[in-house]
Amino acid sequence: MRCSDVEALWDVLREEAEPRDTAVTTHLRSCRTCQAVYEEFEGVAYCLTCLPTAEPPPNLVPRILDHIRSLRNHYRSTAADSLARVESPLGELLVAWREGGITFVGIARGERDDEAREHIERRLRRPVRASEPPAWVRGTVQLFFSTWQVDMGRIDISDLSPFEQAALHKAAQIPPGEVRSYGWIAREIGHPGAARAVGQAMARNPVALFFPCHRVVDASGALHNYGYGVELKARILHMEGYRSKA
User: Fold this and answer.
1) How many domains, in total, are found in the chain?
2) How far apart are CA 87 and CA 183, in angstroms?
3) Residues forming the active site
4) How many CB atoms neighbour CB 12 within 10 A?
5) Sequence-ordered alpha helix ranges (H) in 18-82
């Protein structure tokens, strides 16, 4: 019987007048080190029982839930996302997904598979692996180009900040063929002075097209910047039915 074995059975020693294991009893009676540890633990336990009962702060449960979500996302993100090339009216799309939904959409620009994979891994901050796209991924792409809408249940941007998620979800509410300004999105999500931050969220959008940052323009109505060029932005808007008033 080792001292560590006795320490591991401390709860049993506290709850029972005589431990059922005679070896534990024999060791405890003869070992001054274990006796000292037992007395110390017993004293701490007694002091804890004397503390007044405290009500948990009202924000404790939400904080615990947020912590659980962050842990879940951390461990889930260690697994590789799947990646495939999917044909579309705009050409070949690079689409990544995991169990929770599509995590990345980009327009292929002639890069090699390894170059595309490295770029997407930097954007997602986790590995991706080449896979065959399942029917629901192809269906999500087809639905967008036939209706200019997307099933949000098929999209996963849970790794983005709450502000970024709010900005992208508001952009998704802009009707096809229409545009809104960065300032409009900022006001709508409760941050009227954050137009520039909205622009940054659009620039970091990992699910382009589906979260339609191409429908977001500057305060003057100019198409402004777009990751794939203003000409392509104008082309997508034209396909959706947008006609500039300028």
Assistant:
1) 3
2) 34
3) 213
4) 13
5) 22-30, 32-50, 60-77
Higher pLDDT: 44 or 235? It is 235
**Kind plus residue range of the DSSP H or E element containing 114:** helix 113-124
Question: Residue 109: inside a domain, yes or no?
Answer: yes
pLDDT of amino acid 189:
95
Which of these, 49, 29, 126, 137, lies nearest to 85 by C-alpha position?
Answer: 137
CA 59 to chain CA centroid, nearest Å: 22
Cα gap 110→140, rounded to integer Å: 23
> What's the residue count for the chain?
246
Q: Which pLDDT band holds residue 71 (cuts at 50, 70, 90)?
A: low
- CA 155 – CA 157 distance, rounded (Å): 7
Stretch among 2-11, 128-137, 208-217 having the lowest mean pLDDT: 2-11
Query: Which tokens hold the place of 224?
Result: 């402004």
* 157 inside domain: no
Burial level of 83, CB count in 10 A (0-12/13-18/19+)? buried
pLDDT above 90 covers a percentage of the chain that reads 53
| Structure confidence at residue 118 (pLDDT) | 93
**Domain presence at residue 30:** yes
Helix (H, G, I), strand (E, B) or coil at 205: coil
Read off the pLDDT band of 245 (50, 70, 90): low
Say yes or no: 143 and 181 in one domain: no
pLDDT beyond 60 at 33 = yes
